[in-house]
């Protein structure tokens, strides 16, 4: 029972981050499940099945708060679903021992990407239509990586759309979260075909789903207020540390490399969070209007 409560809290925290940043639910949840000893394919399958419910709740909440561009959703969701179905099929056909380093390698790369993305200022948006020839391959690649890595739809799609400078950040986050419903459903179908029902750890799915559904409306409401710069750097650092540990264990290098590499990564993580906080404060300060100086009053004669 305690384990299920903890998993529900994991789902809640992951959905708060995902709903506020447009990424990290799958990456965070899968990383923690791998640490708990769940097989890579089963971990990814369980997370994607729970995401059907969490992304539906998140999409509805973002839509209610006006954070969704339906034109972008329709053009990125279908290619994303195709890519996630193919990725789930590929992951279902390889052995656990082969999948573990691959999955952790993908997650590690995504963690590095998150840290790099959120330790530099975001470019201001210049709203313009995003073309289908840009959205379709983006959705296909993000969907494939999402299914094979247990996460990656948000970390690939959200920063790429933000970097294009064509959409408001809240529209990017809301649209990516809404499109993820179809991506999660397609990935779950692929895992169901490749693994059968035994590939899903149902108690884990229910716990993650319960926590995620509770967190989805709150995350959509907080999307304009949460300092995403800081959370992105923190989540990225956590993912780097945990998946580096997995890769070192698989390669039998933890005893020789771990004692000096872990403190180094911890220092990098703290530095990244510090930089993100400074950027957030600097951006917030520059956006505040400068006070108008009051005229000096001459003394009365």
Automatic annotation (TrEMBL):
Localization: Cell membrane; Membrane
Q: Which PANTHER family does this one have?
A: MEMBRANE TRANSPORTER PROTEIN MJ0441-RELATED, MEMBRANE TRANSPORTER PROTEIN YTNM-RELATED
TM helices/strands, residue ranges? 100-118, 200-223, 230-248, 260-279
Q: What is this protein called?
A: Probable membrane transporter protein
The organism named in the record is: Hamadaea flava
UniProt keywords (A-Z) are: Cell membrane, Membrane, Transmembrane, Transmembrane helix
For this chain, the family text in UniProt reads:
Belongs to the 4-toluene sulfonate uptake permease (TSUP) (TC 2.A.102) family.
Signal peptide bounds? none
A Pfam family reported for this protein in Swiss-Prot or TrEMBL = TauE
Q: Which domain of life is it from?
A: Bacteria
The way this protein sits in the membrane is described as: Multi-pass membrane protein
């Amino acid at each position: 029972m305690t384990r299920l409560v903890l998993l529900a809290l994991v789902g809640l925290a992951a959905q708060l981050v995902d709903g506020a940043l447009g990424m990290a639910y799958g990456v965070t949840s899968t990383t923690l499940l791998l640490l708990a000893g769940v097989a890579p394919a089963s971990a990814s399958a369980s997370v994607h099945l729970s995401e059907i419910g969490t992304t539906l709740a998140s999409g509805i909440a973002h839509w209610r708060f006006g954070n969704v561009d339906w034109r972008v959703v329709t053009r990125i969701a279908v290619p994303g679903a195709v890519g996630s179905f193919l990725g789930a099929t590929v992951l279902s056909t390889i052995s656990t021992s082969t999948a573990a380093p691959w999955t952790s390698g993908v997650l590690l790369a995504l963690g590095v990407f998150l840290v790099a993305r959120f330790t530099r200022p975001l470019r201001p948006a210049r709203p313009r239509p995003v073309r289908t020839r840009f959205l379709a391959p983006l959705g296909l690649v993000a969907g494939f990586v999402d299914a094979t890595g247990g996460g990656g739809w948000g970390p690939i799609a959200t920063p790429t759309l933000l970097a294009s400078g064509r959409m408001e950040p809240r529209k990017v986050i809301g649209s990516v979260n809404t499109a993820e419903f179809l991506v999660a459903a397609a990935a779950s179908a692929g895992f169901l075909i490749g693994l059968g029902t035994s590939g899903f750890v149902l108690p884990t799915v229910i716990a993650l789903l319960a926590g995620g559904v509770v967190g989805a409306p709150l995350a959509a409401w907080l999307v304009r207020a949460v300092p995403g710069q800081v959370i992105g750097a923190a989540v990225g650092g956590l993912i780097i540390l945990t998946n580096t540990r997995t890769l070192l264990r698989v390669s039998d290098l933890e005893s020789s490399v771990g004692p000096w590499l872990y403190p180094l990564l911890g220092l990098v993580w703290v530095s990244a969070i510090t930089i993100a906080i400074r950027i957030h404060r600097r951006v917030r300060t520059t956006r505040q209007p400068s006070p108008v100086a009051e005229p000096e009053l001459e003394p009365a004669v």
